[in-house]
Amino acid sequence: MLPVVMTGAEHAVVFLSDAVEVEGTHLEVERWLRRSGGDLLVPLAGEATAWGEELLMTVGPSVGERVLGVPVKVRLGACWTRDGSIAIPIRWEAALFESLFPVLDGTLVVTSLDETRCRLAIEASYRPPLERLGSLIDRVLLHRVAESTVHDFLRRVGLTLSAWCARCQNE
After folding, report:
1. How many Å apart are CA 62 and CA 68, to the nearest integer?
2. SS3 for 31?
3. Smaller CB count within 10 Å for the chain: N or C?
4. Does any domain span residue 8?
5. CATH number at residue 60
6. How far does Cα 64 stand from its chain's mean position?
7. How far is the C-alpha of 89 from the C-alpha of 87, rounded, in Å?
8. What domain range is 116 assigned to?
9. Considering its fold, how many domains does the chain have in total?
10. Per-residue pLDDT reduced to its tens digit, 61-94
11. Is 9 among the domain residues?
């Protein structure tokens, strides 16, 4: 699938979207988010460390149990609800070699699928670094890496939410 790209005076803006299913109800996920103060990533403590108001974690495609990626500073905004959905603004940027990696801005959205499952989705955008050359490299190759990175991140967060919901059901 080719990336959705909008070009402007500077260079392209690339849009990403992906989703995973979470084994748990929308209400259980919302309860967990409220209980945790909206800090969705803290349970990934083995992978993330607090860094001021941001978390530092490695994102990238996974090969087996290993994430092949770079450390990024992840910032989540305040969680809000509307029309039965939960939305959480997200921003991540490379912690090292910042000029070589794009900054990703987007929104995580949780919606109900049925009585036992919900959907965790992301709608995000980034500008490839290195202006026109970076846009060309992104279009040819690196957009697939970005899609894989976002999918792996969603998968890990979804597994964390599913595990929490399973604990809630057993209480």
Report:
1. 6
2. helix
3. C
4. no
5. 3.30.530
6. 19
7. 7
8. 16-170
9. 1
10. 777 777 777 888 888 888 888 888 989 899 999 9
11. no
